Amino acid sequence: MTGDQIFQLFAYLLPAIVVGAVSFYFFRMHTNNEEGRRRFLLHKDSQHNTLPIRLQAYERMALFLERIAIPSLVVRVAPKSADKNDYENLLIRTIENEFEHNLSQQIYLSDECWNIIKAAKSATIQMIRKAALSETDSADKLREDILNQTMDKQSPSATALSYVKKEIGELW
User: Cα–Cα distances in Å, from 104 out to 65, 68, 153, 166?
Assistant: First the structure.
């Protein structure tokens, strides 16, 4: 082969290589675009199906937080006897039962939101235990002490509820 023949061969191959490279590039862009579109449609369909369930989970956790808020809890759960220890245990057991009833909702919430809700539950229980350490002698007096101690502070439930509301706002 002479230099002219090699040059002619190169002249014929160069446009074919360029067309092949451009075709490959556009085909690759097209397949990536289609894959992205399919992912978007799948995500959109998934959101359409899971959003109502997630909102229901947030609603249930908001209800849980409202139910364990100390003023609500103390008004709703009346003492069954005059013993303050029995009343303390009744309040804590009520909170734990409410929590266990809503335990499955954690799969629809973010980890941070779930941890804040658990912290609110624990803080509420600690507030009840702290109030029970006082020198009260009856369940009714304990009930009064619990309310008095929590009147001045924002309840852990209110803090957690504001976080839940913030997280729901981010869903839109």
Answer: 15, 18, 30, 21
**Residue 146 and residue 79: Cα distance in Å, rounded?**
13
> pLDDT of 58-82, one tens digit each?
999 999 999 999 989 988 988 888 8
Q: How far apart (Å, rounded) are the C-alpha atoms in residues 76 and 58?
A: 22
Angle at 89 between CA 86 and CA 91, to 5 degrees: 110
Q: Any alpha helices (H) in the chain, and if so which ranges?
A: 3-68, 70-76, 84-101, 111-132, 139-151, 156-170
Alpha carbons 133 and 119: distance in angstroms, whole number: 21
pTM: 0.72
